[in-house]
Amino acid sequence: MHFTFGSPYFLLLLLLLPCFLWCKQYTKPFFFSRLSWVSKQSALLSWEPWLKMLLFTLMVFALAKPFVYDAKNNHHKKGRDLILALDASGSMAQSGFDAKHRMQNKFEINLALASDFIKKRHDDNMGVVIFGTFAYTASPLTYDLSSLDTLLQMTNVGIAGESTAIGDALMQALRTLSYGEAKQKAIILLTDGYHNAGSTSPKTATQKAKALGVKIYTIGIGKKSDYDVALLQTIAKESGAKSYAATSAEALADIYKEIDALEPSSIRSENYLNQRLLILFPLGVVFLLLLLWALWLRRSEQ
């Protein structure tokens, strides 16, 4: 792990620290008949300027966006641009897909397995598309896998409508992939239903993916009578990928393991990987010190 600042130029504000000790402040004049009645105290010996300096320093650190990151392979990574296109239509609310956890629905089980899959794809630039009646990008391509997983867990059944727009899902995934720079790009499409919504046909989306060299791995979950097996096999075949059928949670887990063995390709990564911002730490200390200062002032006035 390494430490740095996201906006280091804010640290120049620390050059103002001497002003807390030597810059003149506006003060109301008082008159004394004898100078001996006035105590002489240097600002260096008073604790209040030092406290103000500490508070100022902590706030400047917060503005500078401190964070820690993993710098391993931060120049060149092996992997591909990869999009998970997940069906969140109403049929994904069916339970009983997992023999061990019969109360969990298909979408919840898929989220857990997808989360585990994401954590293992350290070398990929990944994104997530959620689809139902319409499709939207839940997360753009990113190496920040922890944030990607957090966004994924915020989705639920029906968030994109009750129907199944497979064509729109593929088109949205292709638009999301267009921002990536990897030579090899892939989509993992998971659904449990028939294409019955949207403005784009799966055939049109598949042809565009083929023209762009994007492979589409398809996964049908549940009984084969519940989803369009022929369509998923055609999409995968036309794009040069493979189609899978998962009749149980165990089978779906095995499929994710097989896809996890995708051949990596060279890609240029971001400068910082797996960032964790530390802004709350200096701000928390500032809040605590201000609270203690306010309590001390109130007590001294009594």
- Regions with little confidence, pLDDT below 50 for 5+ residues: none
- Structure summary, number of beta strands: 11
Which homologous superfamily in CATH is the superfamily of the largest domain? Answer: von Willebrand factor, type A domain
Count of folded domains:
2
Number of helices: 9
The gyration radius over C-alpha positions equals 29 Å
Mean pLDDT: 84
Query: What class would the helix/strand composition place it in?
Result: alpha/beta
The CATH topology of the largest domain is given as Rossmann fold
Summary?
With 302 residues, the protein is α/β, with parallel strands linked by helices.
Describe it for me?
The protein is built from nine helices and eleven strands. By secondary structure, the chain is of the alpha/beta class. It folds into two domains: 2-26 and 44-71 and 272-301, no CATH class; 77-268, Rossmann fold (3-Layer(aba) Sandwich), CATH 3.40.50.410. A six-stranded mixed sheet has the order 6-5-4-7-8-9, with helices on both faces. Strand 4, helix 3 and strand 5 (125-131) form a beta-alpha-beta unit. Helix 2 (47-63) runs antiparallel to helix 9 (280-301). The longest helix has 22 residues, at 280-301. The two termini are 49 Å apart. The mean pLDDT is 84.
